[in-house]
Amino acid sequence: MEDIVTKAENVIKNISRDKYNNILLKTNQIRKFLSAVNVVANKVDVYKATNQDNKLLSEKLVMEIKYLEVMLIYQVGRDNAANARLRPVEDFVKKAKLRENLQAIGNSIEKFEEFNRYMEALVAFHKFYGGKDK
């Protein structure tokens, strides 16, 4: 099993590019989702601080993580409506296996934290390899 850093780098190296080899996925296309993940991560940190012996997420946090998938699907849908031919958000979500990774979290604090680090690595490599804001 490859580490999340290598996995994230490989995803970004292989996402859709234009004829000039520029990454088609724009930062603003994933910013809302990353922000939502960060909000949940902060809630998980608070939960961990008050429930130190617990390795499982509360039902409320599990539902918030499931809602992240809805937000992700919405971003893919917006991308499809705006640009029916290229679909860089859909390409990114599929290559990064974001839906599958979200579903695999279940109620595990550890798996959520790993997903959060994966998202951060994806965004970092997106910027490193030339991802633009607009």
Describe, in plain words, how this protein is organized in 3D.
The chain has 134 residues and is mostly helical. It has one domain (4-11, 33-127). Helices cover 71% and strands 0% of the residues. It has helices spanning 4-13, 27-50, 59-82, 88-96, 98-105, 109-128. Helix 3 packs antiparallel against helix 4 (88-96) and helix 3 packs antiparallel against helix 5. The protein is elongated and about 50 Å long. The N and C termini lie far apart (34 Å). The relative contact order is 0.23. The mean pLDDT is 90.
Give the strand content.
Answer: under 5%
Series of H and E elements: HHHHHH
What spatial form do the alpha-carbon principal axes imply?
elongated
How many runs of DSSP E, i.e. beta strands? 0
Described by strand count, sense and barrel closure, the largest sheet is:
none
Kindly report the average pLDDT value: 90
What structural category characterises the helix and strand content?
mainly alpha
The residue fraction in helices comes out at over 70%
Radius of gyration: 15 Å
> Assembly type of the shown chains?
single chain
Number of helices: 6
Low-pLDDT sequence parts: none
Distance N terminus to C terminus? 34 Å
Query: What's the number of structural domains?
Result: 1
Write the layout of secondary structure elements.
Blueprint: H1 4-13, H2 27-50, H3 59-82, H4 88-96, H5 98-105, H6 109-128
Helix pairs in contact: 1-6, 2-3, 2-6, 3-4, 3-5, 5-6
